[in-house]
Design goal:
alpha+beta, 9-stranded mixed β-sheet, 14 helices
Length: 405
């Protein structure tokens, strides 16, 4: 063992103490955030005007904008549809390794279709893509593509495969399409060339259009969210108009450190959702400019299991659910997303998470044994073509040394 645990132990204790101290400091800030949530709950026009002013004056506001629902009003769990078709995708990848015998990367997308209420077994799909073209695996003469760039292509393939499946099954209405993670395709694009960013974003938005044209709902599920968009809104709400500036909006002031999930954790009961909000980011403006129906909205959902009346106490488990405007503005679709996501968390009640997404991840993941088999397959194919293939000296030496230990 190379990790000196005895030396790490004091640092672990310091970490725990730091978290305990942070919780004490955040208690008062959280109470202030909840007071503001109540105070501004129905002052929607005022809040919307403030957000629009912050955007118009280019003050760097990246928080949330309220829609037309009171901020502090929980929305109860809607009735569960008797029938629905749920489709989810997830992906994984083998990143490029410049020390490997040949430079490539692999993206594997898993998908699952569940016909809720039918009693039928789920349908599963796996779609692997091996990428080896030099123009796709190299960003320069000496540098292979980064893990982030591979992630961008994986995210794009996840949504395009999802859109294809939704279109194929569009007559099985209602159809609910789910992805793991948010719907704003922005962080994955960082590091790509401007040309490739435009190509990827357009393909992503075209996939969203295909889902919409199929008459389906689309939702992105964010587990354990770290977002502070609503907290940013409440910080903005507490400023005098004369105080609104880039400097003032670069922090959360007296609400610093509070997460949205902390804010709504004390408000939402099991199965309840928060009000709807819009993400005010440049990327979301791009989505809206492409099509108003594609602007991304979000709400928080307490996916904790319901307890019986004798034991009503439960620890809230908050997820962030992102939906495009065509879902947010259609109460039927919105209620179906709300009810079906909560229902999908029931099989994994001990650690609430949508079963369909857990299965999609299971289908997508590439195990160590599978990776070794793929590498053997590549080696065999190269030998058949009389192509030299050997790992770098560094990779080979690691194998020798680690093999001894």
């Amino acid at each position: 063992m190379s990790l000196a645990l005895a030396k790490v132990a004091p640092q672990v204790e310091a970490l725990a103490q730091t978290l305990a101290d942070r919780a004490i400091r955040l208690s008062d800030r959280l109470e202030e955030a909840r007071r503001r949530l109540d105070r501004f709950s129905e002052r929607l026009a005022e809040l919307q005007e403030r957000v629009e002013r912050a955007i118009a004056e280019d003050l760097g506001y990246r928080g949330a904008r309220p829609c037309n629902e009171p901020l502090a009003l929980p929305h109860p769990l809607p009735p569960l549809p008797q029938r629905a078709t749920l489709i989810a995708t997830d992906g994984s990848q083998i990143p490029p390794d410049r020390h490997a015998p040949v430079l490539y990367y692999l993206i594997n997308v898993g998908a699952i279709l569940i016909r809720h209420g039918s009693g039928e077994a789920p349908e599963t799909f796996v779609e692997p893509t091996l990428v080896y073209d030099p123009d796709e695996v190299m960003v320069s003469d000496e540098q292979p593509v980064t893990a982030g760039q591979v992630n961008a292509r994986r995210d794009l393939q996840e949504i395009t495969f999802l859109a294809e499946l939704v279109w194929t099954h569009r007559h099985e209405a209602p159809v609910i399409a789910l992805t793991d993670g948010g719907l704003l395709f922005w962080s994955a694009l960082e590091g790509l060339s401007q040309r490739k960013q435009r190509l990827y974003q357009r393909a992503y938005l075209e996939a969203l259009t295909k889902v919409q044209d199929a008459g389906a709902a689309l939702a992105g599920y964010v587990d354990r969210p770290l977002s502070t968009g609503v907290v940013s809104l409440l910080h903005l709400a507490g400023l005098d108009r004369s105080q609104m500036s880039q400097a003032a909006l670069s922090t959360h002031g007296p609400l610093a450190g509070v997460l949205d999930r902390d804010l709504f954790g004390g408000l939402l009961g099991p199965g309840e959702r928060s009000a709807l909000f819009v993400t005010m980011s440049p990327r979301n403006r791009d989505f809206k400019d492409y099509a108003a129906s594609h602007e991304i909205h979000f709400f928080y959902l307490n996916v904790a299991p319901r307890r019986d009346e004798a034991d009503p106490a439960t620890i809230p488990v908050l997820a962030r659910v992102e939906v495009p405007a065509w879902v947010a503005t259609d109460r039927t679709l919105l209620d179906q997303v709300h009810a079906l996501i909560y229902n999908q968390c029931a099989p994994l009640a001990a650690t609430p998470y949508p079963y369909i997404l857990a299965r999609a991840d299971e289908l997508a993941v590439i195990g160590g044994e599978e990776k070794r088999h793929l590498e053997m397959l590549i080696q065999m194919a190269l030998r058949e073509q009389r192509q030299a293939s050997r790992p770098s000296a560094k990779a080979a030496s690691k194998g020798v040394v680690r093999g001894r230990t």
